[in-house]
Amino acid sequence: MTTKAVLEVRDLNVRYNTSAGPIHAVSEVSFDVFGDEVFGIAGESGCGKSTLIRALLRLLSPNGICESAVISFKGHDLRTMPDREFRKDILWREISLVPQSAMNSLNPVYRVGAQIVEAIRAHRRCTRATARERVAELFDVVGLQADLMDSYPHEFSGGMRQRAMIAMALALDPALIIMDEPTTGLDVLVQERILRRIRKIRDAIASSIILITHDIAVIAEMCDRIAVMYGGRFMEQARSLDLFESPHHPYTLGLKNAFPSIHAVGAELISIPGFPPGLIGPQTSCPFEPRCPFRIERCATETPQPVTITEQHEIRCFRSAEAESLRELAKSKATWHCSN
Ligand SMILES: Nc1ncnc2c1ncn2[C@@H]1O[C@H](COP(=O)(O)OP(=O)(O)OP(=O)(O)O)[C@@H](O)[C@H]1O
Ligand code: SF4
Ligand SMILES: [Mg+2]
After folding, report:
1. pLDDT at residue 221 above 90?
2. Which of 17, 27, 47 should be mutated for ligand 1, with most atoms under 8 A from CB?
């Protein structure tokens, strides 16, 4: 990992205007992605992961409004860059996306290889034959046989289509590849195969990766640094090792309990009772307050601001100084299921 940030985001907010009122899908999110690193974003369904990515890539639906203090990519100010320039020079060429449900993103009436050839030729001047050679190379990288290039999407399994979309995202050697839930919807064995492949790709390419998932165990294995998102906010951000060895935020403690760990096989899984918050209207409390066994009075009336724990480790919680004792308490099922 190099220390220069490829992407810098400060104070990013996204709201969707709806007839029921504004939905604050992303609030005050700040982070960096460094060269050659994998940055993970973990969080439950509806916490704003895809919205954050769509905002960065200008792919929000028309009712979505993004405001941000800084979005800087390799020194370019992405907030002020004209749309035309962004689509020509940045999207796909510099930042590519494996979208959520990517396996359904291929056009069913065109051969898979031809779709990637077209994507390459839309951004790079080259002959069809050269582009086909590149697709064959990419198929090799993602573990598909080159002769499958001339198949149609319906001839591919879900896992194969997913790999084809990853090939598409790699096609132009972008500096940053964003993968939104790359294994969701696939059966466990295929998930493992795709993750193994992504791990190989991670080691083989120079690009940075943002990996989004609701599965914190996946992210633990794959990422250099992790952000844990809840109710539109980054609640904890740290190097993977620090997050797993020394988690501080109550929500992270709950998430860790709720997922099977490769390091603690057989440990009892403890769910976090309750539901994620509705995001309509402005937030005037800690979003985790209704579910947090450690809440105190001010959690219901104030939104915690980021507190730095150590270098590259920050959390939003009023009880950050008590992390050690909360960590112990969080290991007990009674803490989560009998309190409050
Ligand atoms: N176009 C839209 N209009 C209104 N609300 C929206 C729109 N798109 C998303 N939302 C809402 O914004 C919030 C964040 O949604 P988002 O899809 O970003 O979450 P997510 O973390 O990616 O969830 P998942 O894990 O299910 O993919 C949710 O409450 C969702 O219902
Ligand atoms: S700020 Fe309060 S409610 Fe929020 S996570 Fe910390 S203790 Fe829990
Ligand atoms: Mg999503």
Report:
1. no
2. 47
